[in-house]
Structure formats: structure tokens, C-alpha cells
Automatic annotation (TrEMBL):
GO terms for biological process: proteolysis. Residues 1-17 form the signal peptide. GO terms for molecular function: serine-type endopeptidase activity. Residues 19-240 form the Peptidase S1 domain. It comes from Pseudoalteromonas luteoviolacea (strain 2ta16). Gene3D superfamilies: Trypsin-like serine proteases (2.40.10.10). It comes from the Bacteria. It holds the Pfam family Trypsin. This is Secreted trypsin-like serine protease. Keywords: Disulfide bond, Hydrolase, Protease, Signal.
Length: 283
């Protein structure tokens, strides 16, 4: 239990929990795996990635601290096995380039992937978030953390406030400025998607990264996502030559900086506590 609680602080460090409108029932925000089938989950208390090709998952770099070759992760249907990590070499915690690719050992052919959004017109677009992070509302802030949430999946709406360089920014609006299911994502939802659904399927615009300022966990707070369109050239470069990406410096196979004071010596005890067991993966 000590290490599960420790993990909570690391997973939730960069962003806060999914917070919903105070004037809309929580049940309206509840989601099903089919609402975004490409969602992957790394740990029992959260942290996500998105399948965007049969053997590739994209996520926030800071979520990957327990992922190594052979790690099993949960998919919307079944599971997948990590072959190798590709972390952006310019990842700077709390600042920028919080993005990584998880190369899978085998095709996840049983899961329909999302597609990467490549246009640079994201500003003002209405999007969806989804994840198993904790919850609360815009007046109270977080009242249930991601461990207490026990894997309940929620989705929320928002609108891209700003698209600039490698970052998308979202604001938690209220009253007449809010969307019907307005909310923000956060701890336990790190690495999760900002997405739209079109005639061509689900398109991925951003990856949940960190809290961006304003009243923490309440109306008026900001959320920062890694901007997928900005990183498409890097993503393609890694995918074109994955066996040479690490040796050539295009990617890193592990984090240079562990999140929030976590030390390498913590991982052998921490990771088995929070990674999915065989029984949990088969549920």
C-alpha cells in the first residue's frame, strides 16, 4: 500500500484529476471503453496512452517510469506487451516535449487505432477528454483521487484555448461559457487523449501533460497538453527506423528525469505494486 500511495503522487504530479461541472450529474460524465477504443492504461490507478498504429502507442513521457521491455499494459480489449520505449530527447519536465512512443511487441489488431491530427488549426476546436482519474467539480476541486476512483472511466468536453508550438492549452469554463459536459483532465489521466470524432473515426489532437495555472482544480484553471501535430515529424522519424532511433539520438529508451523526486532505487518495489497483474488484465 505504501508504494501504491507513493505512485499516486507521481502519476498525479503533473496534472490534477478530471473535474466536472457542479451543475451536471456525475453520471452524465460516465464513459464506456467504446467511447474511445484506442485508450490504453498503464497502471492500476491510471496513466494512459493511445494506440495510433497497430504496434504503436503515444503517451506523455512522464507516465513511462515503470514501462520496460516485457511490461503488460491494459487495452480497451485485452492487453499488449511493451517492446521498447522512445522518449523525446528534449523532454523537460513541467515545461515541454512531454511525449513518448511505446513500441509494442506484437500487433494490437483487436483494437481500432486513433489517427494523428496533422493540421495546425486546433485553436477553438471542441474536443473530448477520457480517463480513469479522480474527480470533483469546479466549485470544490478534487474530492476523489485516482486511487479512490477505482478505475471508473469518465469523459468530458473542452475547447482548445490556444495552440502554440508544442503545446495545447485548455481552460475550465463555467456557466454560459461552458460546454454541456465541460471539464478538465488530470492526475490518473496523464498521457490520455484530447480527441475529436469525425467520419474517418477518432483523431488525436493532444496528450495530457500537466496543470497549467489558475485556481487549482477549480473553474478558471488551465490544462496543458502536448500538441500532436507539432510532433508528427518526430513520430514518423522514430517509426521509420525504430531499431536505430535510440542509438542515433532521435529517441531515448528511458526517462532522463523521473517524476517528482522518484529515485531509480524506488522502482523495484513501486512498479510491481502498480502494474496490472495477470488476473487484472484478463478482467
Amino acid at each position: 500500500m505504501k508504494y501504491i500511495l507513493l505512485a499516486l503522487s507521481f502519476i498525479a504530479l503533473n496534472a490534477h484529476a478530471i473535474i466536472i461541472r457542479h451543475d451536471v450529474k456525475d453520471t452524465n460524465y460516465l464513459a464506456k471503453p467504446d467511447d474511445f477504443p484506442a485508450l490504453a492504461t498503464f497502471y492500476i490507478d491510471g496513466a494512459h496512452g493511445i494506440l495510433f498504429s497497430s504496434k504503436w502507442i503515444i503517451t506523455a513521457a512522464h507516465t513511462t517510469f515503470c514501462l520496460t521491455s516485457g511490461t503488460k499494459i491494459k487495452m480497451s480489449k485485452g492487453s499488449a506487451t511493451v517492446k521498447r520505449l522512445h522518449i523525446h530527447p528534449n523532454h523537460t519536465p513541467g515545461i515541454s516535449h512531454d511525449i513518448a512512443l511505446v513500441e509494442l511487441l506484437e500487433d494490437a489488431a483487436h483494437v481500432p487505432p486513433a489517427t494523428l491530427y496533422t493540421r495546425n488549426d486546433e485553436s477553438g476546436l471542441p474536443i473530448w477528454f477520457i480517463g480513469i482519474g479522480g474527480t470533483g467539480n469546479g466549485n470544490t476541486g478534487i474530492t476523489t483521487d485516482n486511487y479512490e476512483n477505482k478505475g471508473v472511466l469518465r469523459k468530458a468536453q473542452n475547447r482548445v484555448e490556444e495552440a502554440k508550438g508544442p503545446i495545447l492549452t485548455f481552460k475550465f469554463d463555467k456557466d454560459e461559457d461552458a460546454l454541456p459536459l465541460e471539464g478538465i483532465s488530470g492526475g490518473g489521466d496523464s498521457g490520455g487523449p484530447a480527441f475529436i470524432k469525425t467520419e474517418r473515426g477518432y483523431q488525436l489532437l493532444g496528450i495530457s501533460s500537466r496543470y497549467g495555472g489558475g485556481p487549482s482544480e477549480k473553474y478558471g484553471s488551465f490544462e496543458v497538453y502536448s500538441r500532436v501535430s507539432y510532433f508528427v515529424p518526430w513520430i514518423r522519424e522514430v517509426m521509420n527506423k525504430p531499431d536505430k532511433a535510440v542509438s542515433s539520438g532521435v529517441s531515448l529508451d528511458k526517462l532522463k528525469y523521473l517524476p517528482g523526486g522518484l529515485k531509480p532505487s524506488d522502482l523495484p518495489a513501486l512498479c510491481p505494486d502498480i502494474l496490472f497483474s495477470h488476473n487484472e488484465l484478463s478482467k
